[in-house]
Amino acid sequence: MAELTTATTAAAAPPPVRPALATALVVSAVTLGVATFEMSMDDWPSGFVLLVLFPVMALTFIGCGLWSMTLLLRIRRHGVRFAAPFLVYVLTLLLLEYAPLQTIALQQNFTWHRANRERIVALVEAGNLKPNVDYSRNLIALGDSEANVSAGGNDIVVDDAGHGTYVLFLTSRGLKHHFSGFLHVPEGAKPEDFFEFDDKPPSRLVRYDKDWYFVAN
């Protein structure tokens, strides 16, 4: 009789929802992370990683989302908790659609690295840092001697404007000379006069603070 009661209790026990919820949280967190830092991963060789990562993440997210929809059929029998994984995916979709994830990431990047970047700008303006790359008279390789303040190898781009020096700290450095980054502009100068925009104006130009702009070509 005791064995029969135990077997009956085990059979009546509801299936667990925790594995599905844990999967939903992990998949959604990774998806939001990739969407947030997509721009900073756009340089070589991370750009090629994204070509593989994006389809894999999209298929994983869609597949797990569809799986979570099947769990909704268990709500009537086992309780509303089986809606939790589906709600996680819905919330993630809303964040992907409406939350300014890349804007938040850029603001964090600007705030986090500002002190080091302003110190490096002062060194450039004082003549203590000069172009040191053979193939470019506008490139300064900071290397490991400085904090990592620029994407694509910690190189910065400078442009002597006569009355001051433009200094570009890259946030992405893609193929075919595509780039984005934070540009420090000499006092009284315009970001559009940076030499990289001689042939074509910036595709993005956002003022972050006095003499600081986010630009992209």
Structure, described:
This protein has helices at residues 2-12, 18-36, 46-71, 75-78, 84-98, 101-125, 151-154; strands spanning 139-141, 155-160, 165-173, 179-184, 204-209, 212-216. It is of the alpha+beta class and 217 residues long. It has two domains: 2-99; 103-216, no CATH class. It has a six-stranded antiparallel beta sheet with strand order 1-2-3-4-6-5. A hairpin with a 2-residue loop joins strand 5 (204-209) and strand 6 (212-216). Helix 2 runs parallel beside helix 5.
List keywords for this structure.
single chain, 217 residues, alpha+beta, six-stranded antiparallel β-sheet, 7 helices, 6 strands
Blueprint (SSEs and pairs):
Layout: H1 2-12, H2 18-36, H3 46-71, H4 75-78, H5 84-98, H6 101-125, E1 139-141, H7 151-154, E2 155-160, E3 165-173, E4 179-184, E5 204-209, E6 212-216
Antiparallel strand pairs: 1-2, 2-3, 3-4, 4-6, 5-6
Helix pairs in contact: 2-3, 2-5
Shape: elongated
By DSSP (H or I, 4+ residues per run), the number of helices equals 7
The N- to C-terminal Cα distance equals 77 Å
Average pLDDT figure:
84
Derived structural class: alpha+beta
Structure summary, number of beta strands: 6
Domain tally? 2
The largest pleated sheet is described as: 6 strands, antiparallel
Helix-residue proportion: 40-55%
Uncertain regions: pLDDT < 50 for 5+ in a row?
4-11
Radius of gyration: 25 Å
Secondary-structure element order, N to C:
HHHHHHEHEEEEE
Strand arrangement across the biggest beta sheet: 1-2-3-4-6-5
Tell me the β content.
15-25%
